[in-house]
């Protein structure tokens, strides 16, 4: 029995019983996510506002997202923001997204756990077939855009990477992001 199959019920129970901000599941186990800091949430709000002005009818930028559940790869992820069709939320039952629902995923790096966004998710999201992954890093005032998921001898990876500094105009998944809206972390962030 795969770790995903054994641990998924535990991940769901943790979310429901502890009212955790989020729980993720990958081949390394169950990860309970801590509540984010203000500048983390502000970056997601700015990104959502910018994307919403550019989306085609029938698409939405959703923050505080439901989990992306992928039994095929054994991954359960709760990104900070996704671009999805509205129809993905019309399905009955608990709000889980399928990987093929997701057009773009974004994460804001948290100061205590940057490896989750830069290491694990740069493998998980392309393995799930998600076309574009945006990493906003207020620790370094950078934005990284990964696209063109594929696999190689070392597993799933994005084949294209573009790095930007806060203040740059960014192209990501057919959208333009003004990263001047993002603030770096300070002090207790």
Automatic annotation (TrEMBL):
Signal peptide: none
Lineage: superkingdom: Bacteria
InterPro entries tied to this protein: Nuclease_put_TT1808, Restrct_endonuc-II-like, Uma2
Hydrolase keyword on record: yes
Keywords, in A-Z order: Endonuclease, Hydrolase, Nuclease
GO-annotated molecular function: endonuclease activity
Pfam family, one: Uma2
Limits of the Putative restriction endonuclease domain: 23-152
Protein name per the record: Uma2 family endonuclease
Lineage: Bacteria, Bacillati, Actinomycetota, Actinomycetes, Streptosporangiales
């Amino acid at each position: 029995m795969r770790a995903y199959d054994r641990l998924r019920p535990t991940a769901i129970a943790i979310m429901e019983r502890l009212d955790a901000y989020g729980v993720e599941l990958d081949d390394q186990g169950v990860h309970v996510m801590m509540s984010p800091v203000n500048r983390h949430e502000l970056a997601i709000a700015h990104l959502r506002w910018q994307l919403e002005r550019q989306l085609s009818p029938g698409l939405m930028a959703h923050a505080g997202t439901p989990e992306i559940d992928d039994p095929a790869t054994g991954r359960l992820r709760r990104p900070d923001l996704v671009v999805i069709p509205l129809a993905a939320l019309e399905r009955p039952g608990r709000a889980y997204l399928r990987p093929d629902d997701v057009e773009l995923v974004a994460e804001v790096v948290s100061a205590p756990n940057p490896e989750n966004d830069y290491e694990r998710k740069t493998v998980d999201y392309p393995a799930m077939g998600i076309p574009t992954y945006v990493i906003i890093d207020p620790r370094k005032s950078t934005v990284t855009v990964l696209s063109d998921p594929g696999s190689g001898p070392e597993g799933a990876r994005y084949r294209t990477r573009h790095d930007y500094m806060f203040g740059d105009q960014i192209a990501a998944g057919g959208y333009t992001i003004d990263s001047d809206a993002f603030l770096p972390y300070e002090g207790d962030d």
